[in-house]
Amino acid sequence: MDTAKDTPAEQHRMEKEDIEDLGTVTLSRGGHVIHCLTVIGQIEGHTEAPQGQKTTKYEHVIPQLVAVQEDPRIEGLLVLLNTVGGDVETGLALAELIASISKPSATLVLGGGHSIGIPLAVSARHSFIVPTATMTVHPVRHSGLILGVPQTMHCFEQMQQRITGFVAAHSGMPEKRYTQLMLHTGELVMDMGTVLDGRRAVKEKLIDELGGLSDALAWLYREIERE
């Protein structure tokens, strides 16, 4: 029987490859086995981002989320976010997957959780944010060519409603308040929206709790032991 993959050196090599290639690691040396997923840079959809940009690719993330749900060894999920946003449908798809995982899950916003990163930030059972992190709430926009017809505006409205509805369903912020923050015109230069720092995000009930890595892990441990 080939047991080379079970040696500490081989396990360390595989963990190193996962971190370098996918930005993930399964924490198995603590009291419980936690899968750590990072969402960084731009959330990439069907079109590749320009070369040189940090991206989170859905073809990397989706299999990991399926593995978290199906692997009996994995007891919980921790999602670390520092994202500028990106593809709307991809961000919503990943958020829906995280929300549907039956095991304890937590998100931690570090740096930023902007735009379509907001549904990801609120998708887990419990969300955390560090005091210095920010979250930018703004409307859906499109940088490419669009048709100047009423159907286009209706499509944008539907897309925005999907985002607003998801955020309201997975956080303590009502749809009306999210829309108010999204359409605010006195804060962003050459744009509309609102920037929330960590404390304000909690005060507005967008994020559940102010805290860091140890707080998120402690919450996950408690939830795992409760089940």
UniProtKB/TrEMBL annotation:
Keywords assigned by UniProt, alphabetized: Hydrolase, Protease
GO biological process: proteolysis
UniProt-recorded Gene Ontology molecular function terms: peptidase activity
Oxidoreductase found in the keyword field: no
Pfam families according to UniProt: CLP_protease
Domain of life: Bacteria
Descriptive protein name: ATP-dependent Clp protease proteolytic subunit
